[in-house]
Amino acid sequence: MGGGLHGRWTAVTRAWRGLGRAQLALLMGGFLVNVGTFAVYPYLAVLLRERLDAGMAQVGVVLGAATLLQFASAPFTAAFAERVGLKRALSLATCLYCLGALTYLGGADRPALMVLGLFLSCGAGALYSPAYRGYLVHAATDEQRPRLVSAGSAAGQLGIACGPVVGALFLHEPGRLFAVTTALYALLALGHAALRPEEPVRPALSGPAVEPFSRVLHGLARVPFAATVLTHYLFMQFYQYLSVYAEGRLSTAVYGLAMTGYSLGLAVLQPLVARRVGRAGHPAAMAIGFPAMAVGMAAFATGHAAGVACGAAAMSVGTAVLFLKNDLEALALSERSATVTFGQQRLAVGVGALLSGVIGGAVYGMFERADALGAFWLTVAAQCVLLPPLALVAGRLVRGRRTAPRSAPRPG
């Protein structure tokens, strides 16, 4: 067993050493971008309520509109990134991040600036995410893609895990927090400007050189799109409602450790399983990922620290497989460029998050009024088992003509 673990770790470190300098630099950039973003994001509701002097309903509308903008615009920002070049798009996105942080900094006594800073940051994220993933897999073969996609996700998850810790250090001094994030994004803008421009690749690997805006939603890989919507509909119920459920049941420290453990587990697991997930068929990956999520959701129903910790670990396993395989399957089946495909996948994430807010919030409220919140998590667990086959069938029924992979089929 020890030799097996050592062999897997050696394989992972060898894979990281095999990355190019530009890819390694971009992975560091993706990590730091998420550190800056998630140093602020978890505390935005509190800051907006204080600066807007508004109730949580109004704050929720502002946050919801900004999130919808970020995800719904992703296919268009991806096409824009293709048009201007991925390196230029990354540089522009980091400049927007910096401008957003500056606007936050100047919004202490001006609520309109605070809201403007939020929308600037969400716009930056909408542009950065597909360009970041597109640059990583630019000119990559099908064999290289699992390693690169998993490495990009792992770097982002490490940033998500570290960001709230950084933000907590400055929670009572938001001015300093925004000054630090402004400086961070300024350095990142300079670093991204120093990246090599992406080299032209064969159309067989990259799709059209420039994607027209009128076609950003054409050529959807419908089955992975549907699977991504479902994955994030279920996942976001964990991400959005566990904090409310944990209040009064767990200490803030225990909840924070569970969420940090989830992000770190996802960051470690994805590179470890990348090769096997890449070779597996999409239904097989779903048969592993969704039941693991079901186990996690059922564990939350206990309401105890051990149950929440075990549930977070199971969620790490399930989402490590599903997040990676959904994107790989979309890349394999789509006839569009990698960057636009990632933009379409971001749209699927947004649709899933919206459904989680609308449906999940209503169901959570129903069980809360009945004083039976444990049953809410069991209901979500049941959906993790019952809905995936329906998503596969629905995706195939509405797919229309089948789009073939651009290269040889993967084994398995």
TrEMBL record:
Superkingdom of origin: Bacteria
Membrane topology: Multi-pass membrane protein
Domain Major facilitator superfamily (MFS) profile stretches: 22-412
An example Gene Ontology CC term for this record: plasma membrane
SUPFAM superfamilies for the chain: MFS general substrate transporter
Gene Ontology MF term list: transmembrane transporter activity
Membrane-spanning residues: 24-44, 56-77, 113-136, 148-171, 216-235, 255-273, 280-300, 347-367, 373-398
Compartment annotation: Cell membrane
UniProt entry tagged with the keyword GTP-binding: no
Primary site of residence: membrane
Pfam families given in the database record: MFS_1
Alphabetic keyword roster: Cell membrane, Membrane, Transmembrane, Transmembrane helix, Transport
Record carries keyword Cell membrane: yes
Name assigned to this protein: MFS transporter
Organism listed in the record: Streptomyces radicis
Lineage: Bacteria, Bacillati, Actinomycetota, Actinomycetes, Kitasatosporales
